Model the fold of this input.
Amino acid sequence: MPPGATAPARYRGRVSVRGLGSAAALLVVLALAGGAAGYAVARADHDRPARTDDVRPLAAAGPAYPTDRPVLVRDDREEPALEADLPLRRVVLGTPPFTVSLSVPRGWVRSDSAGGEWRWYPPPSPDDAENLYFLRVRQVANLFQSVPSARAARVGALATASEVQDLEIVEERYDSLEVSYVAGGYRRHSLERWLTTPGSGETAQFYLGMVGREVDSKAMTRLITRIADSARIG
Done:
């Protein structure tokens, strides 16, 4: 119903026949009966009235106001899919004693987006790789979170991010997370891992993430596993 409009009232008030002559009263009663009968016929042409005990909420057909933001998804870029067996090279990140040594794709371009976070993009540059795929490594030891807590916090951050739409948790394990969502009009797939120091408990030390297109997801799974297996903390 349009804003500001009022629901059509069947009766605006109680109709009283008190004070009218018997003939006039009879005419009023007949008029009301005739009107009611005509209304009933008109209703029967469209649908049968539901009993009170049969009334249930119905899904709106073409609601006037959407219940959520529309999700518009653009076509992915047409570049070839990510390769799973890319050659890797070893790098050391962080400041002692909080360092990690791991392998990253050889030839990818490094971009330090923030303190304690490092990213790698396929060449020639991060701008040219927009909405393709990239690797992210982040130091998270200063958050003093267990792996399950860090994973739950990540899910919460995605769920409340204003730029994220249509979030789907594809798979969630102890130290890993796979999600799908729409950001900037593109469907994105993200594979994420949390690394701990062997023998030091379950506190998350470093976070790994790979974001790409659906067509890249299988290769991303293989590649992030290779990178995580290569990691040495401290």
